[in-house]
Amino acid sequence: MEQQFTLEETLATDLSQVMPLVERIAQKVLALTASAEETFQVKLALEEALTNAMRHGNLLIAKQVVTVKVKASRERIILDIHDQGKGFDFSNLRDPTQGENTERISGRGVFLMRKLMDDIEFYDAGSGVKMVKTFRLKPGA
Amino acid sequence: MGLLIECKEKGPGVYIVIPKGEINTQTYQILESALRDNAASAKALVFEMGQVSYVSSLGLSAIFRIKLALEERKATLVLVNMQPPVALVFETMKILSAQVFASLQEADEYLDRFLDGVQKGTIKPRTPLT
């Protein structure tokens, strides 16, 4: 079984590039952890972060890029996603599970990322996000 | 992984929608375009979710938009038989909780009450979001 991996990629802003990279990283996480549940969680948080970076960060401007850095071991994974946008006010996000927010069409990505990962930190005024997850499940779970 | 959509009529105006695959950034538009006609005319859509292995927030938004379009015409949707990881995403987001059922039988009871309410005029159309 693989013990660790690192990855650094630069993606053009193109939503069709999101899932191939997410899938590639998810396969590596599964090989590392043998945990379908934790792989699902990492995959979902990564998709949300990349999609946010392209749609809300780079505003789907094709010439702007998103950089992705991943460092993973059997104990934990660190995902760092950075776009070229102006950032956003990450301290003042609506809770999409409360009241009338549940009836809104969008605004669920960051909430999901926070729920799925152990630690999530925005930097560069919100144009970068670093997410950490410690793997807890035993292989095969 | 891609997404395939099968849709068949269960009864007058009631359609069973069977998505197979993942509803994600790459596939959510497949779901919306496949159901555009049904969402414009159906009384109810029943999503048989047993073969959906993954859903992200864009997938949730797509299903939610279909729900809103239906409710503006006094129609509805239900989701049945979700795989546990997918059900957990819906539960975490507290989205469509009144429309998620473990089985088709449970959903049928809800749909019977809903369609009865439409007939009696107790179900009102949703005001479109601005």
Q: What is the alpha-carbon Rg of chain B in Å?
A: 14 Å
Separation of termini of chain B?
34 Å
| Secondary structure category of chain A | alpha+beta
Element pattern of chain B in H and E:
EEHHEEHEHEH
Low-confidence segments of chain B, given as residue ranges, are none
Number of strands of chain A: 5
* Oligomeric state of shown chains: heterodimer
Helix content of chain B: 40-55%
Protein chains sharing the most extensive interface: A-B, 24 and 21 residues
CATH homologous superfamily label of chain A: Histidine kinase-like ATPase, C-terminal domain
Q: Structural class of the helices, strands and pairings of chain B?
A: alpha/beta
What do the pLDDT scores of chain A average to? 93
Gross CATH architecture of chain A? 2-Layer Sandwich
Output the CATH homologous superfamily of chain B. STAS domain
Provide a concise account of the structure shown.
The complex is a heterodimer of chains A (141) and B (130). Chain A has 141 residues and is α+β, with helices and mostly antiparallel strands. Chain A has helices spanning 18-33, 36-57, 109-116, and strands at residues 4-12, 65-73, 76-82, 119-123, 128-134.
Structure description:
The complex is a heterodimer of chains A (141) and B (130). Helices cover 33% and strands 26% of the residues of chain A. Chain A has helices at 18-33, 36-57, 109-116; strands spanning 4-12, 65-73, 76-82, 119-123, 128-134. Chain A has a five-stranded antiparallel beta sheet with strand order 1-2-3-5-4, covered by helices on one side. Chain A is globular. With 130 residues, chain B is an alpha/beta fold. Chain B is built from five helices and six strands. In chain B, strands 1, 2, 3, 4, 5 and 6 form a six-stranded mixed beta sheet that branches. Chain B starts with a strand and ends in a 10-residue tail after the last helix. The mean pLDDT of chain B is 92. Classes of the chains: A alpha+beta (141), B alpha/beta (130). The A-B interface holds A 15-16, 18-19, 23, 36-37, 40, 43-44, 47-48, 50-51, 96-97, 102, 105-106, 108-109, 111-112, 115 and B 1, 22, 24-26, 54, 56-58, 60-61, 64-65, 68, 85, 89, 92-95, 129.
